[in-house]
Each structure stands twice: as C-alpha cells, then as structure tokens.
Design a protein that fits this description.
The chain contains 10 helices and 5 strands, in the order βαβαβαβαβαααααα. It has 227 residues and is α/β, with parallel strands linked by helices. Helix 3 packs parallel to helix 4.
C-alpha cells in the first residue's frame, strides 16, 4: 500500500560538525514518517537555503545546534520565531549549560536534547513536539525543575538587579546608545572612549547576548527589556 507522504513530518538539521551532521541525516532517513528536507552546516547556510523553499515545503521541526559558527543557534531560533514561522525547534547540544537552556527557552525553543540521545528518542521527540509537547533530556529536565523549585535564574548571583547575559553597567550604557541608532564614533564621543574601545565593547556584548549584528542585539535588548 502506498504511503501518504502528506503525513510525513518535514525535518531540518542545522549542525556544523560534519561527521555528526552526516550521521544524524543518515539515521533520520531510515524513518519513513520523516522527510529530511533541509540540512545546513550553519545558520547562515540554513537561512539562505530556506529562501528557496515554497510554503508547503518548509520544515516543521528543526534540530538546531546551539553552538554554531557565526549566528548562534539561539539567535537563529530568535529570528525564526520573530518571523512567526510555523516551526518547532529542538535545541541540540553536548552541554547541560543552565544559562543556555534558559536563553533557548526564552527565545522560543520548545525542546532541548543532548546529542547523545538515542535516535529513537530523537524521532519520538520530533513527533511529540508537533503534538504540542516539549521534549527535554532527563538531566536537563531536572535542572529546569530545580530552577522552578528554587525560583532562581541560571547562574544567578545574590544581586537581585543583575541583568540578563551578565552585561556590565558600561556595556548596558553602550547598548543603550546602540538601541538609539548611534554609530561607534558617536557613542565614543558621548562616553569619552575611543571608537576602537567601543568596537571591542560591542563585540563582547554580541558574544554575551549570542547575537551577530546590531539589529539582532537591539531586538533582543528590547525583548528582554535590558534598556
């Protein structure tokens, strides 16, 4: 009996590690209920390829590596959710980093799996997330439960006024100027620092916020009410 291909879930992989990406692709291709429609080695590569797809061809679930070169998995997830794409995103990582878990959830990821998760469990998670579930590796789920029970944010300090991403007061001040649309030169004049120093500060801000552009930093700063 011929299978109804409309029932197949369209899945994408965004993963920079060549061997892991190829192996994961091979394994997922064994499952008839899945249709691997887009595989990319970076977020930039993914977004470029995504433009070529018709609406009915777009992925429904993305396995997103959190540690990507250039645009991070967190920033890519933020962009996808901001554009209101009807897609569910499962963060794929080797780390059990509290802060990254928290940030991933904040920007719209609905699942969080470790890369050593058995392939059958990965496939079940893909199905679960399309049914409204939130698949999370057991060890990560325990961390989240601990956060809920204690009422603490990941890596929280005793200072209740600590801002997201561990930005320093100087970095917050510079970020305020960035949000106002000022150039590095204009910011340097306002805060009495050299343009080179401002450039270094902004680079550090991008790194802490897991973004790769001024526009992304501004969007996330406003979303998280940092400024």
């Amino acid at each position: 009996m011929e299978q109804n291909t409309e029932e197949r879930l369209r899945v994408s992989i965004v993963e920079d590690h060549d061997i892991f990406r190829k192996r994961l692709s091979e394994l997922l291709n064994f499952y008839n209920e899945l249709d691997l429609v887009l595989v990319a080695s970076s977020a930039e590569d993914f977004f470029e390829k995504l433009e070529r797809y018709k609406e009915e061809e777009l992925p429904q679930v993305i396995l997103m590596d959190i540690e990507l070169p250039g645009i991070s998995g967190i920033e890519a997830t933020f962009r996808l959710k901001e554009d209101k794409h009807d897609v569910d995103i499962i963060m794929f990582t080797v780390f059990e980093d509290d802060e990254r878990i928290f940030e991933s959830i904040q920007v719209g990821a609905a699942g969080y799996l470790l890369k050593d998760t058995p392939i059958d469990d990965v496939v079940n998670s893909i199905k679960e997330i399309r049914q409204g579930g939130s698949p999370i590796s057991p060890s990560i789920a325990r961390k989240l439960l601990t956060m809920v029970k204690t009422g603490e944010k990941p890596n929280s300090k005793s200072n209740p006024e600590e801002v997201p991403f561990d930005l320093s007061p100087a970095e917050i001040k510079i970020l305020e100027h960035v949000v106002q649309g000022k150039t590095n030169k204009e910011i340097a004049e306002d805060v009495f620092l050299s343009p080179w120093t401002i450039k270094t500060h902004i680079k550090n801000i991008y790194k802490k916020m897991q973004v790769n552009s001024r526009a992304a930093a501004v969007r996330l700063a406003l979303k998280r009410k940092i400024v």
